[in-house]
Design goal:
It is a single chain. The chain is built from four helices and four strands; from the N terminus they run βαβββααα. It is of the alpha+beta class and 122 residues long. It has one domain. A four-stranded antiparallel sheet has the order 1-2-3-4. Helix 2 packs across helix 3.
Length: 122
């Protein structure tokens, strides 16, 4: 089940993470609006494997200015440092992840098991 680690409103800075299936590989749904452009978002499903040997954890920690408290923090920090493309954001062919509208997001997100108690789509 995907749990909210971003803003309560998924469409303002969404970060939903599936933490139930692995302690090292995290499936994430991310959503960020474009500033000053209505109904245009970057929306993607990515996979962060914190055991990938190409991730330079010293650079990630230096950039973030903090040490991770747990593996979920590590996954978030790696995504924030390297960007969604490095974790498969552009591998979905059903929509352009860099130019998704609200309708596309609502259509795609219904396929995921999400804990809706702390998430809204406004």
């Amino acid at each position: 089940m995907y749990i909210n680690y971003g803003d309560r409103n998924f469409l303002t800075h969404g970060l939903l993470i599936d933490t139930e299936h692995s302690n090292t590989v995290f499936e994430m749904l991310i959503c960020d609006p474009y500033p000053y452009v209505e109904d245009l978002f970057q929306f993607a499903h990515i996979t962060v494997d914190i055991e990938d040997d190409w991730i330079d954890w010293e650079k990630v920690k230096d950039f973030m200015g903090m040490k991770p408290r747990n593996n979920v923090d590590k996954a978030i920090m790696a995504y924030e440092y390297y960007g969604a493309e490095q974790f498969g954001a552009d591998s979905n062919v059903s929509y352009d992840w860099k130019r998704a509208d609200k309708e596309t997001i609502l259509r795609e997100i219904r396929n995921y098991l999400i804990a809706w108690d702390n998430v809204v789509l406004e």
